[in-house]
Amino acid sequence: MDTGSTLDETAHTVTRTVRVAASRDLVFEVLTQPSQIAQWFGQRADFPDGVHAGAHGTFGWVDHGDFPVRIDRYDAPTAFAFTWGTPGEPIREDNSTTATFTLEKDGEKTQLTVVESGFDTLGAAAGRRAAMEDNARGWTEELDELVAHVDGLERGTGLAPIADVESGRITRSVLVRAPQQTTWDVLTDPVAIEQWWGHPARFPGGLREGAEGTFEWTGHGLMPMRVERFDAPAVLELLWGELGEETPGDDASLVQFRLSPVGPDRTLVTVVEHCFTHLDDAGRRAAMEENVTGWTNVLNALVTYAERADA
Fold it and tell me: What is the pLDDT of residues 291-305, one digit of tens each?
């Protein structure tokens, strides 16, 4: 049963339960991976050493700053918990609360429950009550966004890229109805790349970590590429140079692809492009808007090609 957030002033907790029309594997991925979190919970999620029990990172909102986070539990695909504090301060008992998520099967759907606790350590009673009310509104809004995000993935290519102009970051996810290995092969084979990207890709020695090559923008010229990371079949990172350069320069974009299996025959593909930080705000916004359109078209084509390859 989907409900709004509820407050328990005796236990000092905020609770909300939603039903998501997707598998636990997909919901857990969207709930826990930084590139997914940034698409429904604030604008940024950064965990330099990855997400696992004991990991530290931040959740960021343009209007509120970056909140310090510690991952307390990571049991895929059933449970996840984090403690978060106050922007600009280390996590302490008197400035932090803990959000614990449980995921239960509900037929072909997933029941997701969050319980946030620890409000009793936040100081005066009036302040605790205000914090609980504020976070209750927050979980109502944020979990509605998570449900909408998962629904968009399940519908196919309906999710638009998210552009964080402040950080120069574009993020988009698509759900491919093909196994992870098939999707990886389509993503990394230059012959396949030309088919779904629409322009020639040339890597004389093949794609591997450290390899250099080019993507051609037909009618405009070549863009140099260098493979920064090649962890088959899960992570591909490319340093993407500008037209006319021989090698990627100081203003090159870093493009990261992450492929996560969702069951045996589906793959969640997320691309994150870090770009245009050398431009002023107006120039960065214009360039990012152009790339948002590009990633919409390119990833839609990747989905279609990968699913046909697996047919």
Answer: 999 999 999 999 999
